[in-house]
Amino acid sequence: MIDKMMSISKKMQENRFISSLTNGLISATPLLMVGAIFAVINSFPIAGYQNFLITTKLKVITSLPTNITTNLISVYLAFIIAYLFAKKSDRKESMEIGILALMSFLIITPIEISDSYAITAIKSDWLGAAGMFTAFIVSLSSAAICTWLYQKEITIKMPEGVPEAVSKSFSALIPGFVVAFLFLLVRYLFMLTPFESMHKFIYGVIGAPLTVIGSSFWAFLIFVLLIHVFWFLGIHGSLLVIGIVAPIITPLGIENLAAYNAGQTIPHILTTTFLFQSIGATAGNTLGLVIAMCFAKSKRYQTVGKLGLVPNIFSVNEPIIFATPIVMNFSLLIPFVAVPVVSFVGAYVLTLIDILPRMNGVSVPAGIPIVLGGIMSGGWKWGVYQLLTVLFSYGMYLPFFKKMDNQEYKLEQGGE
User: Fold this and answer.
1) Domain annotation covers residue 2
2) Among 201, 279, 343, 389, which is least packed, fewest CB within 10 Å?
3) Cα separations (Å) of 321 from 113, 317, 405, 407?
4) 338, 374: one domain
């Protein structure tokens, strides 16, 4: 069963479309982090500080980074995803394919045109989180078309001796005209419908329903369960599950961040950040287990616990998962699954009744210590909640771990 699931996981990760999409979202993380940090700077909830920003006109400056990163994320993704798709297809024209995908995305994006048919504005509504699904579809389809044309050598070939940059530019002409014509046709056809644009159609018919389903409490609860079942089987559950659902749930955090930066009500409770910060920043919230190990009777578990303590504090628990091991260890299955599930449900209920604040959309980078990560993404109350989940984790793991520890101690003492 494990071999079969690993095979499925490997095939999904190697699929050009899925891997380009997932890796594209990962590649955009620095942009989102810059936007998130400046959103915190811009929206720090102290009246005197906000008055200072407004009176000195610094508010314009501090709000700008988020507006040109998070609020334009679809523009960046349109290029990045197509570029990575071309690289995955072993095309040396990856830069050109990325540029043509960006052009295609802008072609189908609603714009305001003057009486002389000059562009006066591009609607920013569809350049942020709301346009992400369209960016996914357009960039992948444009990249696939261009890649196919290059593979079939349906391009303009320049004579030998022409500089490579010039040759690449001319070879991109036919793919460029093809995707431009196709997406101009798409734009025109949507203009004839009640949707008026591809953006409205994708968001209304595909994006919004998927987001509603994927952002429900039950969907997230299933995500939590799947992550930990996969980890128990020796599969990196976090990467596998998030790799599949990221296109659905990533826009939720981006919308939260945009609202936070604009000083508006944060719309969503459940986001990718909520998923991980609510369960204790690591799969299984194993910090409680590590603390129990540090006071173990057996030398083996004492050593594992001491070696794993610092990495676990910094949200890295692979050493504990594989060295304990937790993988295929039925003695720890119940707390490994129960701790994150209870922590997630508790966080959701407390947020629903306004005891915990909604997370601001700040994407906490890997390696940020537990508690500090909660403070960054939701404030001091989240830091306190994470500390409580560690205590809960310790209490849940302790009786199960004690049995393992006693058995190991007997073996070390020469018993059977």
Assistant:
1) no
2) 201
3) 58, 6, 16, 19
4) yes
